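pinging the channel bc i need a second pair of eyes. not urgent but kinda urgent?? the chain im working w is below, pasted from the shared doc
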Amino acid sequence: MTSGSPLTDAVAIVTGAGRGIGAATAARLAADGAAVVALDLVESDAAGTVTAIRAAGGRALAIGCDVTSAEQVDAAIDRTCTEYGRLDVLVNNAGVLRDNMLFMMSDDDWDTVVDVHLKGAFHCSRAAGRQMVRQGSGKIVNLSSVAADGNRGQANYAAAKAAVQGLTRTLAIELGPHGVNVNAIAPGFVATAMTDETARRTGADPAEFRRAAAARSPLRRVGSVRDIAGVVAFLASEDAAYITGQTIHVDGGPQ
């Protein structure tokens, strides 16, 4: 990376970049100077993100990729390196919800959530890590959640997000000697389509759901996707060069 914007000449991959935190993170990294590869399950799902980045003068490419498939992930990493020549930042953001109480949760509910959040992060980190080790540098940022401490109706999601924190610490130990930093972010309540879906699942109005969450926060508001994107951008920058193996809670304070 050269001087100028924080990520000038950097190349970043963001998974789950079609909407929400992923789309906001892709836009922020591009604004900071990175060429961004926006991954989503179907390439067209990330097209809007790429169009917005290009309209703002940034560089971006959309790739369709199922992060639960090692073959598709390897192909996406290879295409990125062929297109841009390197890979400096990986943001493991792809995620889904299949909420239910324990006795109502199916094997498919469990497997889908754990596979996307945890196996997806493993596949992407393994493939990107190989390239970063060859370069002698890189930043991996994993998206965990405050739900890692336990959340009613989310046994699958909570387990996956807790495991992501363990994965983060282990990869930091393994990859640190090769110049690669690995950190995680644990968002609290962030206003997204996903949290609106959670509200509807519980029979709540999404707007009221957000107001109730804001009332529990010391800051008296819920998080925005920009709040999370800003912390990702910090961890991807040289300002965070001596931070690794950490999970940063971005949750509006203790509740």
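so Residues 11-188+224-243 form a domain with the Rossmann fold fold (CATH 3.40.50.720). and The beta strands are 11-15, 35-40, 59-64, 89-92, 138-143, 180-187, 247-250. — does that match what u expected or am i reading it wrong
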